[in-house]
Structures are given as structure tokens and as C-alpha cells.
Amino acid sequence: MTKLEHLKECKQFLPKMVKHRRALLAHNTGRPASAVMVKAMGMIDYFTSTIASFDNMVKFINRTDVRDGMWQIIPSREKKNREHFTYLLSEGNRLQQPATQQKLTYSL
Asked: How far is Cα 76 from Cα 78, in angstroms, rounded to an integer?
């Protein structure tokens, strides 16, 4: 996954999960809304549309309040979405690291 692909995936996945949770709340199913969840949903709605760089997106999803809010937003029975969010976190951290350079030495 490239940095641009990661940015696009985050911009699609995060609002999709917020929209899904809002639909569940509208039908009174799932976990009731908490202050952390509502704050995270508002932050995700506002910031995902304004973030235009990979580094800022990774910093945003690694913030403790956003990360904890996403764990509350994603329903616990949806293991695939939880695993995908974990993947986005780890892949973002991996892509931020500088590439390792190998020294090739030849001995005769």
C-alpha cells in the first residue's frame, strides 16, 4: 500500500463507520452513545474532509481520543471492520518509517 492509497482508504473508511454508527443509533440498536463516541464522530466528520496529506492523516488517527473513539464507534460484532482499522493504524505507522537502506559489500 502506498501513502496515497492509505490516505484514500482512511478518507473512505472513517466516515463510512461514523455513518454506520449513526444509523444504528437512529434505530436504537447497539451500544448507546457516550461522550467519547459523540466527540470522535464529530472530529472525524470535520477533519477527514480537511486533511489532505498522509502524514497529517496518520497523526490524526493515532491520536488517543480519535483511536479510542473509533473503537467505540465500530460495533464489537464487526470483527472485519475492527481488523481493518487495526490494519490502517499499523500500515500508517509502517509507511511513516524511513526506508531502510542496505549496504552491499562484496568480499573476494
From this structure: 5
